[in-house]
Amino acid sequence: MILDVIVTKSDDGYTAEIPSLKGCESWAHDEETVLDKIIELASFYLNTKSDNFKLDKARVKSNISVYKLVFNKS
After folding, report:
1. pLDDT value at residue 74
2. Partners of 18 in the beta sheet?
3. What is the tens place of the pLDDT at every residue in 55-70?
4. Residues 39, 73: Cα–Cα separation, whole Å
5. Which positions ≥6 away from 11 have C-beta within 8 Å?
6. Backbone phi, then psi, for 51, in 5-degree steps?
7. How far apart are CA 51 and CA 21, in angstroms?
8. Domains of the chain in sequence order
9. Buried/exposed code over 57-74 (b: 16+ C-beta within 10 A; e: otherwise)
């Protein structure tokens, strides 16, 4: 399964969201932390271990980065 993770940089930090999981959003001061938080949250939402996730950066446009969250839900 592959889900999009949208990371938006603003003046006060970074926001990450997974649009296909309603309410799956996180905020942090730096990009690495917000990615760690969103993976932990996705793990909770999907009821699977976060060790199963692989995160790949797909593209960057202006202040928005799109990542692909790849995992096998078993």
Report:
1. 62
2. none
3. 999 999 999 999 999 9
4. 14
5. none
6. -65, -20
7. 19
8. 2-70 (3.30.160.250)
9. eeeeeeeebebebebeee
Q: By C-alpha distance, which of 4, 3, 29 is closest to 15?
A: 29
The token pair at 74 is: 């078993």
Structure tokens at 5: 């993770």
Give the number of C-alpha atoms closer than 13 A to the C-alpha of residue 43, restricted to the C-beta side. Answer: 13
Which residues have CB under 8 Å from 48's CB, separation 6+? 71, 73, 74
Question: In this structure, what are the phi and psi dihedrals at residue 49, rounded to the nearest 5 degrees?
Answer: -75, 140
Cβ atoms within 10 A of the Cβ of 44, count? 12
DSSP annotation of 41: H
What are 23-49's pLDDT values in tens digits?
999 999 999 999 999 999 999 999 999
At 63, list the tokens. Answer: 């202040």
pTM of the predicted model, to two decimals?
0.91
